[in-house]
Design a protein that fits this description.
The complex is a heterodimer of chains A (188) and B (405). Chain A contains 11 helices and 7 strands. Chain A is an alpha/beta fold and 188 residues long. Chain B starts with 10 loop residues before the first helix and ends in an 11-residue tail after the last strand. Classes of the chains: A alpha/beta (188), B alpha+beta (405).
């Protein structure tokens, strides 16, 4: 089985915005975790219309489904790593990274600085995943139509205000995905 | 290689931050000791920096104070605490109202964040402060009026209304001005130290006109009483204090200079065949962004309205809000920018350059992740245009440095 995955807020916000969050998480076919500091963050997404108030969302449905579990740092090493990373990152990012380093979990984050700090852990390299990689995995699964992917990508862009950087290896894939079925898009 | 970062940070710095955090929660050292399962003397020693913390203890302290661990280890700025200054000048007030101390700490935190952002960006604080004014040699009204005229002249404001006071004070003098929610009795706060410079906080819950007056008032403290921290309280009407009288006289004359107000009143009078109306006065106050009460009292003191006019209007049941609604005046728009524009630009630039994570940026902006992304978009001035199903982005990066020769 693939290494367990720990999700950071930057990715959680995007996955929830797809409107198919639980399906996306299931498609990863690995144990998924969220640390306590991230679970405590208030996460909002935009409504269908930008004039609508922001919607408060959470990972609670994922936890209730049993697909995602909450974790906290354990033992002296993870606590030390947590405090060490907190000098460079916010608490959710620092706690997530400490657990990933301590347990060899994969870290799902889109954040440039968090990825850089994770990459600097030479003694225990941390594997990373991004929102485009996660959606790519999900869309490669059976039964995901190009229209479904396009809707998900547009929701992420609209409701979570996320787009991959041009330097992202999946940048082209993302933009092709969002332009699929253009005729249908125009009629919206 | 793993390191215990707590061994690299001066324990006195962490101790001071823990003490500030404890005070902000209103907990005693004994209560914290009980919660943490340690002796009170241990808490005392940690706060004094005489005993180093373990990572597990710091995590537990952060949980008890409902703060993030990064707040204690992620800051480089060390300053003389504002609370100590307020205790020197406002001791009784702070003892009577524990939440006032929280306001002082909040101003200090935000100002430290500002300095941190300057350090990350490698830029220096902009300070162009005038010398402190003497307040002796005349009545409060005379001194306040003279200083207001001098400052208007120095800032090239003429004698008209000041539409962008905050921007002027921030960009031309380098004052650090924040807006945040405070107990309703507090109008504003002023504090200064060498590390942070002059820092002002205004109660964001107050109406626009009150905020404008409070800003002018705190600016007056900066000009006249720079080295004394000040919390301006409403309702208590500390008019017996000479310091408050001269500062209020400054605010009144700075916002409503006699020459400009007199000239405009004369113009209104000329153009109103039936004489100056209540509607004229409400519009007049809106133009100067002062309350109707402040303007009427000013006109009374300038002998343009009969003495007791405001008292009469109040007795007759005049309601300012209703009058403003009838005239289509929105006198209570929310504060558009809780932080200085420069602060936001520095934060977004640091994020875009990879010096701050998104989570850190959200902390600096005191908001959630989505709102943080929206602020980044706003600063980048991304204009989304829908062209035949495509979105075209036109990016104008307002935070981008220009190669000025």
């Amino acid at each position: 089985m693939a290494k367990p995955l720990l999700l950071d807020t930057s990715v959680i916000l995007n996955i929830i915005a797809t409107g198919s969050g639980l399906d996306v998480v299931k498609s990863l076919e690995r144990e998924c975790f969220v640390c306590t500091a991230v679970a405590a963050e208030a996460i909002y997404i935009r409504g269908e219309d930008s004039a609508q108030p922001l919607q408060l969302v959470s990972v609670q449905p994922w936890i209730e489904s049993g697909r995602v579990s909450i974790v906290a740092p354990e033992g002296k090493r993870e606590e030390e790593l947590y405090v060490q990373f907190a000098a460079d990152l916010d608490d959710g990012e620092a706690m997530s990274l400490a657990i990933c380093v301590g347990r060899q979990y994969v870290f799902a984050t889109d954040d440039r600085k968090a990825r850089r700090v994770a990459g600097s852990q030479l003694s225990a390299p941390v594997d990373l995943l991004s929102t485009p990689e996660i959606l790519h995995t999900w869309s490669s699964g059976a039964g995901i139509l190009s229209e479904t992917l396009r809707e998900a990508i547009l929701r992420v862009e609209t409701k979570a205000r996320f787009k991959p950087a041009p330097s992202d290896p999946l940048f082209e894939w993302w933009h092709r995905g969002r332009l699929e079925d253009k005729a249908s898009f125009k009629s919206r | 290689m793993d390191v215990n970062i707590l061994e690299q940070i001066d324990p006195r710095i962490i101790g001071t931050r823990l003490q500030d955090a404890r005070r902000a929660t209103g907990l005693t050292q004994q209560a914290v000791a009980d919660e943490m399962g340690m002796a009170r003397t241990t808490v005392v020693a940690i706060e004094k920096g005489e005993r180093r913390l373990s990572p597990a203890e710091l995590i537990q302290f952060a949980r008890v104070y409902r703060r993030s661990v990064s707040e204690f280890v992620g800051r480089n700025t060390v300053t003389e605490g504002f609370v100590a200054q307020f205790r020197a000048t406002e001791r009784q007030m702070l003892e009577d109202n524990s939440d006032y101390e929280g306001v002082a700490l909040e101003l200090q935190r935000r100002s430290e964040d500002y300095v941190e952002l300057e350090q990350v960006a490698g830029v220096r604080a902009q300070r162009s402060y005038p010398s402190v004014y003497e307040t002796s040699g005349g009545s409060a009204e005379q001194v306040g009026s003279e200083i207001a005229a001098t400052e208007r002249n120095r800032l090239g404001l003429g004698d008209g209304p000041i539409g962008n006071l905050r921007e002027r004070l921030e960009t031309e003098m380098g004052l650090r001005i924040f807006y945040f929610s405070m107990p309703s009795k507090i109008a504003g706060v002023f504090a200064y130290n060498e590390d942070l410079g002059a820092c002002i906080a205004i109660n964001s819950r107050h109406p626009r006109d009150r905020r404008q007056w409070s800003l002018a008032h705190e600016f007056g403290h900066f000009l006249m009483h720079r080295y004394q921290a000040e919390i301006t309280i409403l309702l208590e009407r500390r008019l017996h204090s000479a310091k408050e009288r001269v500062t209020d006289a400054f605010a009144e004359n700075f916002l409503m200079p006699a020459s400009g107000v007199n000239r405009r009143f004369t113009d209104i009078h000329r153009l109103s065949p039936k004489g100056v109306t209540l509607g004229d006065i409400v519009n007049f106050a809106n133009l100067y962004q002062v309350s109707v009460q402040a303007l009427v009292l000013r006109l009374e003191s300038l002998k343009r309205l009969a003495p007791g006019t405001w008292d009469r209007l109040t007795t007759e049941g005049f309601e300012v809000r209703k009058a403003q609604n009838l005239l289509g005046i929105d006198a209570n728009p929310p504060v558009s920018d809780l932080f200085p524009q420069r602060y936001i630009s520095l934060a977004v630039t640091a994020f875009r350059n990879g010096h701050l994570s998104e989570g850190q940026l959200a902390k600096y902006l005191h908001t959630d992740r989505l709102s943080t992304r929206l602020v980044v978009e706003e600063v980048q001035n991304q204009v989304h245009r829908e062209i035949e199903g495509d979105f075209t982005e036109v990016e104008v990066d307002l935070a981008q440095p220009l190669g000025v020769r």
